[in-house]
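Thought: the user wants the 3D structure for the chain below. I'll pass the sequence to the structure tool as-is, report back what it returns, then summarize two notable features.
Action: structure_tool
Action Input:
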Amino acid sequence: MGADAHAKLIKAEAKRLGFLSCGISRAGFLEEEAPRLERWLKAGMHGEMGWMENHFDKRLDPTLLVPGAKSVVSLLLNYYPAEQQPESTYQVSKYAYGEDYHRVIKDRLRELLHVIRTEIGEVEGRAFVDSAPVLDKAWAARSGLGWMGKHSNLLTKEVGSYYFIAELILDLELPPDAPVTDHCGTCTACIDACPTQAITEPYVVDGSKCISYYTIELKSEIPASASGQWADWIFGCDICQDVCPWNRFATPHSEPRFNAHPELMEMTRADWEELTEEVFRQVFPKSAVKRTKFSGLKRNIAFLSDGDTASENDFERE
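Observation:
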């Protein structure tokens, strides 16, 4: 088989495995993203996420992660839920309703890589799911899977932005796909709706002001200045995606492992405020919510219910 046939095989297998779409780009240094990432870090927009400063070169050059890499295969997996939490209760980001996406996607990527090696031959490569120094959205955009929206999420005309991004970096030469054009136009819905003004300008998000940062990444005490800005979010935030016009095309996923625990859909504000560690384990057995731990989730709930910052001493550090 030639390179075109290899690409056709990979995309067909990706579809069979349930991926929303698959695109290919040439592995190489991300020249346009390098100065943007450097400015973002120098401005301190990563907050306490010190790990964002690590492996700067690897984030921009996949050949440093996979020696001899020639292609980046980007994949999207839908997570938009058929059922959502009532608006009257505390909110968990939709991506965390069910099982941790790292587990679900890694299983599929391993199978895809196995098929590639079985059908094509000896191919060296690695699978990545938001857990290594890879600029997922940049590669997906280069692969023609969408464009970077003003909220800095990847957007696709047909389905919006409620999907996970993953990659296979391979030493296999494949024909690259062409990027798509930006279709945000003059819309500023995401900028206008962000309650913490984290989108400082179109296409630039100050991560240290994002509700997702406060509720997941921040391990020290929550600043009092954030009080009253969060709405009801206790893990993550979907506001900029919820208001995006392109997400009117989002359709429910078909992955049972992403389905929420029934109890999550029924929890009231009082249930959350009285949350015990036993119920936490029951409702979020394999969920990404475990990243913030029980103590972190309780901190977030207390911050919203009391209007006070939780003590750093009460928060269990990772």
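Final Answer: Structure generated. Residues 308-318 have pLDDT under 50 and may be disordered. Strands lie at 21-26, 71-78, 91-92, 125-128, 147-148, 154-155, 163-170, 199-201, 204-205, 233-235.
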